[in-house]
Amino acid sequence: MVEASGLLQPTPGAARPSTPAIGEVAAFGDRQTGQLDKANADKAGAGAILSLCEKRNAEAIDAATPKGLLRRIFG
Predict the structure, then answer these.
(1) Which helix (H) or strand (E) holds 20?
(2) Which residues are CB-contacts of 44 (< 8 A; sequence separation ≥ 6)?
(3) pTM (whole model) above 0.70
(4) Is the CB of residue 75 less than 8 Å from the CB of residue 40?
């Protein structure tokens, strides 16, 4: 599920400034920060999907585990 979401794909860095002018360098910094924000959001999304899957799997295992007398007999 996480692979299909594209969240594991690397987030490309911002394009480097074409000139060493301070305005270009500052704009590059802003763009790079935006790319970092995207990458962090991807990680948060992947973590949320993983947590939901782990919770669902734990609930399924718990539901499939014999309880009470059945557990004493078959456990």
Answers:
(1) none
(2) none
(3) no
(4) no
